[in-house]
Design a protein that fits this description.
InterPro entries: ABC_Transporter_SBP (IPR050902), ABC_transptr_periplasmic_BD (IPR002491). The protein is an alpha/beta fold and about 350 residues long. The protein has 2 domains: about 30-150, Nitrogenase molybdenum iron protein domain (Rossmann fold); about 185-355, Rossmann fold (3-Layer(aba) Sandwich). The chain has helices at about 15-25, 60-70, 80-85, 90-95, 110-115, 130-140, 155-170, 170-195, 225, 250-255, 265-275, 285, 310-320, 330-340, 345-355; strands at about 1-5, 35-40, 45, 55, 120-125, 145-150, 200-205, 215, 230, 245-250, 260-265, 290, 345.
Length: about 350
């Protein structure tokens, strides 16, 4: 693995039509007055003319900042896993842990946040709750400007990339990432549009060391299943559709679901599922249609959701609908990591990420 120059021209070539449309949009996003912006929820915020130090209160925002410019990030939401360290910059790995809305009881450490001297703070707009409002009040007392970014669905990402890129003064960088995002989403949507409902595979999302935790259809955690032309077999509403908590199911219930494919989050469960006689009663296991979700530096599918879903959607299409979505996933993975993460993967590293 070699680390690319963060801002070198990407291998991904944007269609002329996209670029012709894009730059007028970027130019038209100038603040209404010096230092004033309108965030993605319509809220007007006065921010510094130059922004170099940013804290995001949740991982989706932090990861988006990383893709645009990791040098502006002043703190982490939680300690990094080893898998995150392998493909991220050393400077990112040594940042202080400030906390945030991460569903692990890790609140913001106000002392560490103040010491880090943020210019602005990013709030994930979709996670409106008493906790969010408390944070907003806290930032107001600290006199730190904050703004909302919408990252609830994969379709939010193109606009979010442009908005945050403009705010950071990284318009050209944002244009590159936006072009990839728009083209990728359109490719998937076009392929899925022609799939009859009866031909859409049933999918179970297995989480936990025993594979018996999952999230329901309609949850942001399982968005890619439906987006990629699958049917989430678990329909029960979880207690928190935005991300705090999963549904616990029984193996008998999974047997009744009898999914065509199983997406697996934990390596330990994936290592055992094919040899477990109980799980072998399920068609997806017998037919070896169980897939370990790629992870590194961030999960491609979920927990936390991030821009990595742009690549995860192509990976999922390649396993659910290979005949409709032929793609060289090794080449695509190398391209994506170079563009979004500034990392040049070797063939071996790309294959490892893909579980090959």
């Amino acid at each position: 693995m070699r680390r690319s120059s963060r801002y070198r021209v990407a291998a991904y070539t944007l269609p002329i039509l996209v670029m012709t449309f894009l730059f007028p949009v970027l130019a038209g996003m100038s603040p209404a007055s010096a230092g004033e912006i309108t965030d993605m929820t319509g809220r007007k915020v006065v921010v510094p003319d130059t922004i170099n130090r940013v804290f995001a209160v949740s991982p989706p925002g932090t990861y988006l900042l990383y893709a645009l410019d990791p040098s502006v990030i002043i703190g982490l939401n939680f300690p990094l896993w080893e898998s995150e360290k392998r493909y991220t910059a050393k400077s990112y790995q040594t940042l202080p842990v400030i906390g945030g809305m991460v569903g692990q009881g890790r609140n913001i450490n106000q002392e560490v946040l103040l010491a880090a001297k943020p210019d602005v703070i990013v709030i994930w707009a979709g996670r409106v709750s008493a906790v969010t409002r408390n944070y907003e009040e806290m930032f107001a007392r600290m006199k730190i400007p904050w703004f909302n970014v919408c990252l609830d669905t994969i379709d939010d990402y193109p606009e979010a990339i442009l908005f945050v890129g403009r705010l950071l003064g990284r318009k050209e960088r944002a244009a590159e990432l936006h072009g990839y995002a728009v083209c990728s989403l359109n490719q998937v949507k076009t392929s899925v549009a022609g799939i009859p409902e009866a031909s859409r595979p049933k999918v179970y999302y297995a989480q936990g060391m025993d594979g018996l935790c999952t999230d329901p259809a309609g949850s942001m955690h399982t968005e890619l299943i439906e987006f990629c032309g699958g049917v989430n077999v678990h329909r029960k509403q979880s207690r928190d559709n935005y991300g705090y908590g999963m549904d616990k199911v029984t193996l008998e219930q999974v047997m009744l679901y009898d999914p065509d494919a199983i997406l697996i989050k934990e390596k330990a469960f994936y290592a055992e599922v094919f040899s477990d006689p109980r799980w072998r009663r399920i068609k997806a296991v017998r037919e070896k249609r169980c897939f370990l979700i790629p992870h590194g530096p961030f999960n491609w599918f979920d927990r936390p959701p991030s821009f990595m879903r742009l690549l995860g959607a192509k990976w999922l299409m390649s396993i659910l609908h290979p005949e409709r979505f032929p793609i060289d996933m090794m080449g695509e993975t190398k391209l994506f990591y170079r563009l979004f993460l500034g990392v040049d993967l070797s063939d071996k590293e790309a294959k490892e990420l893909l579980g090959e």
